[in-house]
Amino acid sequence: MMLWLAMSIRLRVAVGTTLVACLLLVVIGLAVHASVAAITTRSEESLAASDLAPYVADLRANPHGSPDQPAPGVLVLVEDPLGVPRITSVTPEVQNAVQEAPQGDGTFSIAPGESTYMVVSETVQTDSGLWRLWAVRNGAANSLTIAGIDQLMVAVLTLALLVIGTCAWLLATLALRPVGRMRRSAELLGARGEGELPRGRANDELSALAVTLNSFLHRVRDTSDRERAMISAASHEIRTPIAVIATQLELMHRGFGNADALEAEIIATEATVTRLNSLASNLLELSRLDATMHLDHSIPHESATADELLTELMFAVDRARTLAPRQRTAVEFSVDVQVPGARYWLSSCSFGRILDNLISNSLRSTETGGQISIHFGQTPEQLELTVEDSGTGIPEEFLPRIFDRFSQAEEVQSSTRPGSGLGLALVAATVDRGHGTITLSNRQPAGVTARVSLDLLP
After folding, report:
1. Which end of the chain offers a freer environment for a tag, N or C, measured as fewer CB atoms within 10 Å?
2. Is 241 helix (H, G, I), strand (E, B) or coil?
3. How far is CA 187 from CA 94, 184, 198, in A?
4. Which of 383, 314, 297 is nearest to 344 (CA)?
5. How far apart, in Å, are the Cα atoms of 86 and each of 20, 113, 131, 245?
């Protein structure tokens, strides 16, 4: 087994094909040998019966006459009813072997000495008594014929086996040629980091393998590119609040003698730390969601009932009401609830994360006196969550990339309450993990509508 595993695929194909062909050719050779032997045996029996037929006919026609002597080369033994040989053209050795054989009509073989003989025996009943007749055929010629055929078959089958093994080696070499090209291309891909594996002209399994591997390479590169982009953007986003905190700490040192200025810097630092904490939490959650992308989405890894989601919605509204004064925003919240009775593909914690990000975005874009409306209901097929605000809206040109990571509209980046650019990306990933969809659109005359639809758990 170890030797077999140590062989190359090409050698294994050639050796395996040769062994199977060898077994098949041996079976064919044995069948041909048996067939030739049977044919020669029947031929000898027919010839022996032909040699005996004239004497049988002569005795039946003239039982009291003396049988004629056989022609040269015809081996016949005839005994009269008294057991006296009347015709003997066989050697005494053969005669003794024939006479010692079982009595009666039929065919049998004898082997006096080194030769084998085919014997046809027949009895003839006449009015003078029972005559016994034997015709003998020397099997040496048949043995030579069979031996010659066997030698020819061995030579032919050996040649056929060599041809089959060589053809199997060549065909395996040709069939595996694309594998060699793929291997060399893979080595170059490792050095260059770009390109793809060559696909053969034939529409076969190797071509399908090349397509699958190329698709895998593209996914790996896309993932790697996203990771590099995310690391770069995260480094930039984290560096900014850290630099701000360092500056604010320096200002605190300068404001030790001024309590009001020190309080203002502490409050500003708290806001910066909160933003940094939110950024770290969102990065951690996105990393967790990315790590579970390969899992089977048909199996609910987490779920929650409608009542649990409704409770989380109330908590999210309470958190938003607590957060609004800290952001110096006075807004009115309205909640419309139609209590559904089903189970969904995400946990209440994940649902709360969706609500917190959507409501937080609405708070940042809504001025004092604005309104945020939340609708929570269910259709026969889905749960529907709608968060509407009367804020400044989203630039139309930015809507197509609203869910990209670290993407923010210029108005948000230049505002006094910028986000991290990860909140909506986290919402989109969480909704997708929960078998749902999310859309954002501008309202008229102002504001944004966020619609989340979540499939019911079967």
Report:
1. N
2. helix
3. 80, 5, 12
4. 383
5. 59, 25, 10, 136
Specify the pLDDT at position 413. Answer: 47
d(CA 33, CA 159): 18
Inter-axis angle of helices 348-365 and 423-433, nearest 10: 150
d(CA 228, CA 208): 30
| 160 has a pLDDT exceeding 80 | yes
Q: Are 406 and 237 in contact (CB under 8 A)?
A: yes
CA-to-CA dists, residue 18 to 57, 157, 449, angstroms: 58, 12, 72
Residue 294 has pLDDT above 60, yes or no: no
- DSSP category for residue 365: H
Cα–Cα dist 5/169, whole Å:
17
Q: Which helix or strand (DSSP H or E) is residue 305 part of?
A: strand 304-305
User: In the prediction, which pLDDT does 414 show?
Assistant: 45
pLDDT for 155 equals 92
What domains does the chain contain, in order, with CATH numbers?
Answer: 2-170 (no CATH), 184-291 (1.10.287.130), 297-455 (3.30.565.10)
Tokens for 125?
A: 């009943």
The answer to whether the predicted template modeling score (pTM) of the entire model surpasses 0.70 is: no
Side chain identity at 50, as an amino acid letter? S
Burial 330-343 (b: 16+ CB within 10 A, else e): ebeeeeeeeebebe
Q: Looking at residue 449, what is its pLDDT?
A: 92
* Average pLDDT value for the chain: 78
pLDDT at 149 > cutoff 50 = yes
CB 10 within 8 A of CB 177: no
8 A C-beta contact, residue 229 and residue 407: no
Structure tokens at 215: 């698709």
Q: How many CB atoms lie within 10 A of CB 219?
A: 10
pLDDT at residue 97 above 50? Answer: yes
Q: Is the pLDDT of residue 439 over 60?
A: yes
pLDDT band at residue 274 using 50, 70 and 90 as cut-offs: low
Q: How far is CA 373 from the centre of its chain?
A: 50
Element (H or E) spanning 437, and its range?
A: strand 436-442
Which residues, 6+ apart, have CB-to-CB distance to 187 below 8 Å?
none
pLDDT of residue 342: 75
Selection from 238, 282, 234 nearest residue 423 by Cα = 282
Read out DSSP for 131-199? EEEEEEEETHHHHHHHHHHHHHHHHHHHHHHHHHHHHHHHHHHHHTHHHHHHHHHHHHHHHHS------
